[in-house]
Amino acid sequence: MEERMGPAKCESEAETPTHYPTHSLLARNRSASSLHQTLASLLPVSHLSAPPSLSRFLACPSPRGISAVFPSLSFSINQQAMGVAEHADVPPNPGWIPHLDMQFDNEDAAYAFYNSYAACVGFSVRKSKMWTTSKDVLAARTLVCSKQGFRQKKKGFEPKKPRPATRTGCPACMTIKITPSGRYRVTEFVPDHNHLLANPSTARLLRSHRAKVKERIAGDSGMPPDSSDKHQLKRRKAMPVGDAGAVLEYLQRMQVENPSFFYAVRVDGNDSIANFFWADAKSVMDYQYFGDVVCFDMTYKACDCGRPFALFVGVNNHKQMIIFGSALLYDESVESLRWLLDTFKDAMRGKQPKTVLTDQCMEITDALVAAWPRTTHRICVWHVYQNAMMHLNQVFEGSKTFAHDFGQCIFDCEEEEEFVYAWRAMIDKYDLDDNEWLAKLYEDRLTWALPYGKQVFCADIKSSLQKENLISLLKKHLSPQQELLPFFEHYDTLLNERRCLELQADAHAGQNILKVPPLRMLKQAANVYTPAVFKLFQNEFEMYMDCMVYHCGDAGTISDYKVIVDEKSREHFVRYDSSDSSIFCSCKKFESAGIQCRHVFKVLDYRNIKELPPRYILKRWRKDAKLGAVTDHHEYPSADSSKSLIANRDNDLCCIFSTLAARAAKTVESFTFIESQSELLLEQVEHILQTRTFEIPQLTIASSIQPRNLIESVVESLNHDNNTDTNVIISAANGISFTY
Q1: The SWIM-type domain covers which part of the protein (predicted)?
Q2: How far is the C-alpha of 61 from the C-alpha of 297, rounded, in Å?
């Protein structure tokens, strides 16, 4: 808020300090090509480094100043428009850094210049104190960093939901005073900040840089400011005021806390914020283990009344839902969704899933075909049920049995004939022949109905989605009436709670011994599967006792069998090849869920085979699914910046220390030993960091890194004491232990 200080006389030329601030002196005699290096020496590296996903928007400094170049937008400083280049007596200077005695035609020109400087450095500008003459002419004005000062507390007022503090008492400022000629001269310039600065590529999203964006784009393109693509407007959702700043504040804070944190921001052709995507290191690691099946949940999208939030989720070896990445999608066009898919793939080290499940959306389908052509796309049957609850709301509320019948039809029918019969019976029972939505749904049944997708591996994710709807847990915090920063607090809480549950499940799987009947195949499964998966396996195994098997004939090493389930009189055909112990069932449960079926168990028992062939025990369902380093041959994202190098090294170190943590957790003695040695290691690392300069970005990453010295010797010694398998536990930077 502006503060009027009353009439004041103009300050004379003699009263102007003759010295330059230290930072200005450092920059005065440098060429424009070295300006970026000058800033790098004055500010922390993280202030000037853009995320890998945004680094392509940064341009090298030009002789006229540094430009942060974006599609249809440049932040190069137009000195002529500011009244500087042709009408100012300015001492020799690179041109874009303020300095004492710089003069401007008016206050607006000074503000525009300082605001452009702020965009290059990475902060937002606010007008502060002003002085006027007796004739109400501006005598002096101080322009400050938006984080200047501190928020005033109102006496006797305690808000129910206090906003996060944004001011830090930052001293950075520029003061101008009027001269006898009527122009304004810089009499004070303080470049120092006491807070983290925004990346140059994202600084333009701060409040003081958003106001002129639309006008600048229009000026560059020759189009009127309100011209836009009608289709894009249809697919876009207006971004509430303050959302961009809140999201960027959260993302940049997370990246400071964890260098491996990945985020990306998409700017559309109109230079407006379109999408945000982010994923932390644990999510990326989880994806390497369980990223074969991904559900892209956009059920809470722009057509709803809240913010357009989306999740990339999967299922781990405990049948728990895990988060691979998150996004805010203010633009749902095909081009925008393709950007999101490409960005997700980049974040996950170039690895795309085998199967992706989505909502019913033509834009998503088109984007997937273009971005992930080798990935199988299926409509998630759970999303079909959720959509039905919206489109058939009156039917659900008007009948006590419709929910059961509809759910049984889409979730329980395994064969095509069974599905068609159940669908027809449901339509007739509730008189829904004229329902257009159901008619269209049935027409598209090949893309979502279970009998038509049995050959596609989906990790039985539908059952996990039925139990856990993560977006519904966050939905109430996404209202446009609420600020966005509290949502991120709830998001982080949910993420940490889920990871604690995963940690507990890992501990339970590694320590508890399941009591199973004295049957070799059940013992085999109990030893390798997690308890949650073993429960599913055991259920199928027990059901084979109700099956009847008939030998249909042999052809060389191949034998065919017909298996009938007594209670439903269903026929399934099983083929066994004795040459390689391969076995196949027409129900395709193993192909879709990764767990063998009762029909196969019946045939194996018929042939007196008492153990399941190892090829049919998927590692993704095993207790040791996350044991050891990830066998991933995909290349890292291009390491053209120090940030990407640090992120890659951070991921490699997670793999190295995971084995050490797993062994040390076995006993109290080994845990205590590692805990004490970790303090010594940390001291040594801090000593190295203090005595050596930071590496330049052009360094290369070793293709493989192995634990050495203390780590290697400790692991070797612990292996002598503990020879049993275990899950691998590491401790993240935020103090919460995760399992890998």
Answers
A1: 561-608
A2: 42
Rounded Cα distance, 456 and 592, in Å: 5
Parallel, antiparallel or unpaired: strands 376-379 and 547-555: unpaired
* Separation of CA 549 from chain center: 49
* Model confidence, pTM: 0.58
Between 596 and 688, the more confident residue is 596
d(CA 723, CA 484): 49
CA angle at residue 307 from 196 to 326, to 5 degrees? Answer: 60
29-57 tens-digit pLDDT: 333 333 333 333 333 333 333 333 333 33
Backbone angles phi, psi at 518, to 5 degrees: -75, 60
Domain boundaries of the chain, sorted by first residue = 3-152+162-221, 232-383+460-496, 520-621, 642-724
Number of neighbouring beta carbons within 10 Å of residue 351 = 16
Q: What is the pLDDT of residue 506?
A: 87
In this structure, the number of other CB atoms found within 10 A of the CB of residue 294 comes to: 27
CB-based burial label for 353 (10 Å; 0-12, 13-18, 19+)? buried
Rounded Cα distance between 549 and 603, Å, is 7
Q: How far, rounded to the nearest angstrom, does the alpha carbon of residue 721 sit from its chain's CA centroid?
A: 40
Crossing angle of helices 436-443 and 381-391, in 10° steps, is 170
Structure tokens at 337: 């969704």
Q: Kindly report, residue by residue over 367-401, the tens digit of the pLDDT.
A: 999 999 999 999 999 889 988 998 998 899 989 99
